[in-house]
């Protein structure tokens, strides 16, 4: 939907990936232990038992290797109440964040305590681990901690090969905003127009227009409507498939310099064999059906050869 | 007034490979750091500050990873800086670390750069397309291939030049025990027979995705004198916008300006005869001739002839990337610091099987973004001015 | 060795949400223009540029690259970037000037905190193996630190509310502030908890913003400013990332940085304390007495543009010197969970 307004356009931008983390010997041992319902710490140079274990000493930076198993009960050192949990947190109902010093450990472990309400929480209270239903070798094998008077939940440890990898899904949501100049251009596209702007300092015509001319540091201003035809300055043929790709290879990604513009933009060239695409080829936009138009350059499905004679190299050489 | 002298007294790097699943990020960094510290003969109490370089945080999915790595980097209780200048970051990390010594602020600084590409997928991270845009992007290869085509058109270079570079760098990589790709039997013909990925760039002309780290110890004159040292003769950094009307994307002005400043600072008048070896950031084979021209080693349009004549091979007039370069190992954020470290190793005479005989002056180079960030340094076996 | 001074400072209005892009261009262009107008310099006069920002704040790799457009960076510039608060970019620039390679530097920071879910994004700064998988939000984690101090008698909820009230009062004279007003601790304490023991007023607001500072050396600084704010101490340190393994009721890295920078006799301090209890914690760690004016700008509780906020503390402290309201000022910047990394910049007028 296009909203007719002078406000800059915005749209959701979701950035998500399941990261694959290799753990190395120290974190791997901790993860393997968790899956089997044991908690490993490591002894630091100052004699403290660090939980979770550190790979390198916080005082001397030396590699740490002396593992010490600690208890699965401990004491709350401090806490805060999380009334409205966010995505991905250990519990979906209200809980306390706490630093829990496990029996035998000298440092606090950050985790959730499922206490029901803040008046059930106090510094110094004792808590125990509630294990996750399906341990995989992760800090999340500890589902949370719970007060000792809670009804214990029976959960089974898992024994198997050492844990060496951890998958951490990271999914973040953003609101992506176009600049005012770009928004004007995008609204133009929704009407089938290619609107560039001229920089008041260097007189160059930019499409898309810019919030700041990259060479002059001032916004581009005077609107210039550009035709939907121009020249291929240079290009490549993308043969390689990759994660997140939205156009099926092979395809020609080309820099198109519209007639009257001073800067090319990247687009697709179809309508001929990829091997026939060449520098200097004249091309014309093939628009999608009007009912599919939005505020995007994707309204132009692709460019295809116009059949005109090629532009001489000198005419676009300064745009390479 | 003016900068104080600084020198590299130790370098270290990991065994680079596609997936270093035997270590965490901390362990990866420490492999390089521990080797650099041993090479320099220093211990933690000698280090005044740490500079970490890394390419985008999205690659590892950690926001400002230097924070969680502080203990592993030996930075706790010390100053810690995190540099990020796109692909040139490894070089910038070296330059920033050098400036901490040259300014007289610190005496000994540890510079570290890493990338653990196997935590995610760089093609994905680099091709995240914000709303409203045409989703044509296809990673770094898709970005640079059109500009390679422009170079070929502009210079009239024959098609096999890229293959010459690829075959040379991969064979060099086979001499480097740390290299990710070691292909002693690769030939120009086999490169030319490899699949075309982003026409005109072929598979064998493309850098690998690597996990790896690099570290260097940079020291002041008092520390470095009387011991093996790679003296820093010059550093330079330049930036220009990604796109602007009339931008030369084949030989960007920022690269030319950085090189001109570098040669001036180093007192070098004729780079090709005064520099003994160059470690240049060549992630796609064609960038060797392109950067030879951009850096002023050859005239414009002549870089490919220098490459074709074999002058950039070990034993040539200007060996380029005897380590195998980025084409043999590409832990992105570390790749620039690897170029810097390899340049230092050459003038220290510690490059092992890929040592260039008699190397006394070496260049390290890195670039990033859309060929818009440039970092350079010149190191020498003698103090600046002693030549 | 060059003497280096702050000779210019400008910031964008601190606002809950700008309609601008995450690359900060719309905020930076007017900031640069104001700075150039103030100093009479133009972009060609700047010897070195350095910026601070975060890709995760923007949600995309290399987000800082587009910000370079705001400069008009052609012919090419000598430039660098830190993935940190721009206070550390200023540090890099200060080092650069001291090498003699540049006489002037322009340092900028920007952040559009409103673009994403800031409380979740900040969890990305924690240990990616052991902590981030739990997605601990920044406010909840700060509550852990606040309670430790409360229960150890180092501060009270009333003390914390008084910090918030003082911030809002001070911000009345700061035209760029996001939150300001006449209020009292008593009023604020009537509000419900956001994350017990923290209330909304205990937490810096979510702010979009940008700022820039011009540095100059020696005679150049004297030429550009009647009363430059000379940097006489500039230090930063980092603490262990293991929250459970450090004393969260103090800040060893702040103490070490301050000791090295030489903060005795400061008359005014701008502290980067995103939570009220951290303001008190920092005063205690720095040993600031009653005689020291703290956060005349209102501090970050009145507006907290991520990745520019630390730089703004230095700009605000320098403004105190340059206006002749102080002869020695302290600026502090922080980064990382619960004050993990801290920077102290001491500025003096002559």
UniProtKB/TrEMBL annotation, chain A:
Domain spans labelled ChsH2 rubredoxin-like zinc ribbon: 188-218
Occurrences of domain ChsH2 C-terminal OB-fold (ranges): 68-131, 223-288
InterPro entries associated with the record: ChsH2_C, ChsH2_Znr, NA-bd_OB-fold, Thioester_dehydratase-like
Listed SUPFAM superfamilies: Nucleic acid-binding proteins
Pfam families tied to this protein: OB_ChsH2_C, zf-ChsH2
Official protein name in the record: OB-fold protein
Organism: Kutzneria buriramensis
Automatic annotation (TrEMBL), chain B:
An annotated Gene Ontology molecular function: acyltransferase activity, transferring groups other than amino-acyl groups
Keyword Magnesium appears in the UniProt entry: no
UniProt cross-references to Pfam families, sorted A to Z: Thiolase_C_1
Record-annotated Thiolase C-terminal domain positions: 247-372
Organism: Kutzneria buriramensis
Lyase is among the record's keywords: no
Cleaved signal peptide residues: none
Keywords tagged on the record: Transferase
The protein's name: Acetyl-CoA C-acetyltransferase
Top-level division of the source organism's lineage: Bacteria
Source lineage: Bacteria, Bacillati, Actinomycetota, Actinomycetes, Pseudonocardiales
TrEMBL record, chain C:
Entry superkingdom: Bacteria
A single GO molecular function term of this UniProt record: acyltransferase activity, transferring groups other than amino-acyl groups
Keyword Transferase attributed: yes
Protein name: Acetyl-CoA acetyltransferase
Database matches in SUPFAM superfamilies: Thiolase-like
Entry keyword set: Transferase
Lineage per the UniProt record: Bacteria, Bacillati, Actinomycetota, Actinomycetes, Pseudonocardiales
InterPro entries: Thiolase, Thiolase-like
